[in-house]
Amino acid sequence: MQLRGTSRINEQGHLEIGGVDSVDLSRRFGTPLYVMDEQMIRERMRAFINAFRKTGLSFQVAYASKAFSTLAMCRLVEEEGLYLDVVSDGELYTALKANFPPERIYFHGNNKTPEELEMGLKAGIGWFVVDNFTELSLLNSLAQREGITVRILLRTTPGVEAHTHDYIQTGQEDSKFGFDLGNGQVKRAIQQSLQSERLQLDGFHCHIGSQIFGAEGFRLAVQKMAALTRESRAVFGFHPRILNLGGGFGIRYQASDRPIPIEEYVSAIAEEIRAGFSGETCPEIWLEPGRSIVGEAGTTLYRVGSTKEVPGIRKYVAVDGGMNDNPRPALYQATYEAIVANRAAETPQERISVAGKLCESGDMLIWDLDVPKVETGDVLAVLSTGAYNYSMANNYNRLRRPAVVFVRDGQADLVVQRERLDDLLQNDRIPERMMAVEPVE
C-alpha cells in the first residue's frame, strides 16, 4: 500500500502523519478523528498554480469548499491566494467568519434561495454562477432593488458524459444543473443576461463531473465552450472574459486508481484552449478543484471494537464510526484502503471486512481488507478521506460528528471540536403542552 503525502511508518511501527504519531492523535483527540495533512493540502494548491504558470495563460484557481469547509480551511485557502467557491449560505457564512475576502468568492448552486442571494449581495461577493432562468430573473430584481450591478457567469451543461459514477456526473445533457447547450437555452440566457439592467455577464462555466481520471473529457468540454464563445460573439457581440471549466480531477482511493498528475490535466486544457482560441484573445481560465486538493490529505482514525466470525465466509471487524462520518461507500459504492495504525509495520495475517456501528446492514466501510491480526482497541486508519467525509457527516443514530485536526511539522491543531452530547440537543424543543402531561397510571 502506498501512503499519501507526509505519511510514513515511524520507528515505533506506527503510522505517522505530518510528523505526528497517529496513535498519539487517537489518544489525545479520541476517535473517530479526521486528520488533515496540511502540508499536502498546500502542495496540491501550489501544484495547480505552478502548472498554470507554465502555460502562460491568464488563470485563476478556486477551491471548491463543498469538499471540506471549516474556518481553518478557509483561512488556509486565503493564505495560498486561491479564490473560493461556495454553494450555500452556510459555506458563505463560514468563509466570511474566517475573514475570507468576499471579492474572491463566487456562489454556485442550482436552487439558491432569495435569502442566499441577498446574503451574497450584501457581502459583496465577486460573482454568482447562475444556474437557471428563475435565478437569472430573481438576481436581476434583487440587484435592481439594491441599486447595484452583479457580475455573473452562466453555468452550461456541455453534453459531455464523464466516465464516473452516475451520481457525480454533472455535464451530460440530462442534468439538473445549468443551461443546456444543445436546445438553445444558453443562447436565451445570454440574451436575457445582456438585456438585464443590473447583471454584468463575465463568462461561462461548465463542470463535467467528479473523480475523472483522464483529460479527454476536459478537452471535449473546452472544444464545446470555445464553440459557444464563437457563437456568442457572432450572434450577440459578446466575448467572455472568463471561462470556468470546473473541477472533477480524480484522486487515488485504492491501488487500482490511476489519476493523472495535475500538470497533465492543466497542460491538456491549455493545449485545447490555444487551439480553440487560435488568433483570438483567450478568456481567463478558471478551475475549481476540491477533492483533488483535500481528498488524499485526509485520514480517518477509528478504534476497533467488536468482531464477528462467519465461518467460511468472512470476519467482520466493527469500528466506532461508519456511515455517519463516511457515507460515501453507501452512497456511491466508494472503496477505500486502510492500515492498522498501531501495527503499520506488521505483515498481514488475515482478511477482514470493516463494519460501522450504525443500525444499517449497508453500514460497511471496507470489504476484504488484508491486515495483521486485529484486536479490540487497535487503531484503524482509513486513507483518502479528506473530501466529502467531514462535509457529509451526519448525526444518524444520534452519533456525534468527529473532531478534525490539522497536522504539520510535528504539530497537531484542533480545527473542529468533537460534538458533545449536549450539542445533539441544542436545537431540540419540547412543546409546552407536553410539559404538563400527567403520567399514565
From TrEMBL:
| Residues involved in substrate binding | 291, 328, 332, 360, 388
Q: Which UniProt keywords apply?
A: Amino-acid biosynthesis, Decarboxylase, Lyase, Lysine biosynthesis, Pyridoxal phosphate
Catalyzed reactions per annotation: meso-2,6-diaminopimelate + H(+) = L-lysine + CO2
Q: Where is the active site?
A: 359
Q: Does this UniProt record's set of keywords contain Lyase?
A: yes
Which coenzyme or cofactor does it need?
pyridoxal 5'-phosphate
> Subunit details for this protein?
Homodimer.
- Could you say which EC number(s) this protein's record lists? 4.1.1.20
The molecule here is called Diaminopimelate decarboxylase
List, for all copies, the residue spans of the domain called Orn/DAP/Arg decarboxylase 2 N-terminal: 40-294
